[in-house]
Amino acid sequence: VSEFVGCSPSLSGALRVNPWNVEEMADHIYRALTISSQERVVRHEQHFRYIKEHSVEKWATSFLSSLTDVCADLTQMYTFGLGFGLSFRVV
Questions:
Q1: CB within 8 Å of 37: residues ≥ 6 apart
Q2: Distance, CA of 24 to CA of 2 (rounded, Å)
Q3: Residue 2: partners with Cβ closer than 8 Å, 6 or more residues away
Q4: What pLDDT does residue 58 have?
C-alpha cells in the first residue's frame, strides 16, 4: 500500500511503501511474494477484522454527526465577501 493513501495508517499490517522509491518498491514486492502463508493469514485476518469494525456505514454516521455538530454553530457565525475583481474570498 502506498504510504500516501489515507487508509495506510488504518491498515497497520500492510506493507507500506513510498511508490516513488524504486528500490523500496522492489524490496516490498519481493517481500510480499515471499511472505510465509502463516504471516499472510495473520495480516489478512487483522485487516478483515478492522474493515468489519470500521465499515463505510460507521464512517458515514461519524462524518454526518461531526457535520451536524459544526453546523449547529453556524447560526452564530457571520460571513463576509472580500475581494477585488475575480479574487473573491468568503471569510
A1: none
A2: 11
A3: 8, 16, 17, 18, 19
A4: 87
